[in-house]
Amino acid sequence: MKSLTPWISSQRRFCWVCLVIITSLSVLIWYNHVARLGGVTVTANVGLHGYVRITFGNTEEFLNIHCKQCALVSSSGQMLKAGKGEEIDHLDCVIRMNNAPTVGYEHDVGSRTSLRVVSHTSVPLLLKNETYYFRQSADTVYVVWGPERNMRQDGKGQIFNVLLKVARKYPSVKIYAVTREKIQYCDRLFQNETGKNRMQSGAFLSTGFFTMVLAMDMCDSIQVYGMITDDYCSQANHTAVPYHYYERGRMDECRMYHVHERARRGGHRFITEKAIYARFQVQYF
Ligand SMILES: *[C@@H]1O[C@H](CO)[C@@H](O)[C@H](O)[C@H]1NC(C)=O
Ligand SMILES: *[C@@H]1O[C@H](CO)[C@@H](O)[C@H](O)[C@H]1NC(C)=O
Ligand SMILES: *[C@@H]1O[C@H](CO)[C@@H](O)[C@H](O)[C@H]1NC(C)=O
């Protein structure tokens, strides 16, 4: 008899669970029914609508991640000898860019990667080492941005087609594309912050810009690692570091920044980034 009471209460709890499941199932079925009537099949209308998963079939799946604290790790040479690896790995989510490696740099940049924001131009770099990125690091989420000519989904977008093949070969890997609407939103954000039309001013948005916008979408707070401030390079005593921590012996960071300025390309990136970060709960190290 002694064991009866817990059994009943657990059974009652079980029925509550049943009820919840049945209710949500009917809502889901009703929802799918309504969605189908509208001509679209929607599996789950949750997540961030600016990022849509690259999959086969006609279902639409949005990026559904939320993190309390994010580490946004830049690819700058400032990361070398920073010794921030352990601190980075302790935050909820770790965001990196393009093909920035962790192997061999764990002490400075950490070893976890929750999500990578990847430029269309860096997709071939991931494919060069696809075993590492899509098999060994299969739990990393990939978010790819690119212009319409490369990312269009009508069969003419070269990079999109490549990503579709990757999605077929590694079905468990989650690869998302930044939607055209989100890219247009980023252009408007750029214009609002700089007063300049991105295309008229000949600038390209950087992967860093898209990464910051995504981090603002998915993180409650963002800890930025290794990004310099806009006046850093004009200080006479600044230290020369490689543009990327994993490409030593190439052009140093500040020289790259000056080249971009002269080319009138990406020249307003730092001001833009600074102005945008200032509005959010972002901390630099
Ligand atoms: C692939 O990436 C891993 C991790 O960065 C690296 O250790 C390995 O050497 C790379 N392999 C090739 C073929 O580039
Ligand atoms: C840009 O500024 C306009 C006018 O202040 C505002 O309505 C709009 O929401 C802003 N857009 C973005 C993407 O920040
Ligand atoms: C350079 O000098 C300024 C003061 O003139 C100081 O605030 C800054 O920390 C120095 N930077 C480095 C990298 O030593």
Automatic annotation (TrEMBL):
The keyword Protein biosynthesis does not apply. InterPro entries: Glyco_trans_29, GT29-like_sf. Coiled coil: none annotated. GO terms for biological process: ganglioside biosynthetic process; oligosaccharide metabolic process. GO terms for cellular component: Golgi membrane. Its main location: Golgi. It is found in: Golgi apparatus membrane. Keywords: Disulfide bond, Glycoprotein, Glycosyltransferase, Golgi apparatus, Lipid metabolism, Membrane, Sialic acid, Signal-anchor, Transferase, Transmembrane, Transmembrane helix. The chain crosses the membrane at residues 12-31. It is a single-pass type II membrane protein. Belongs to the glycosyltransferase 29 family. This is Alpha-N-acetyl-neuraminyl-2,3-beta-galactosyl-1, 3-N-acetyl-galactosaminide alpha-2,6-sialyltransferase.
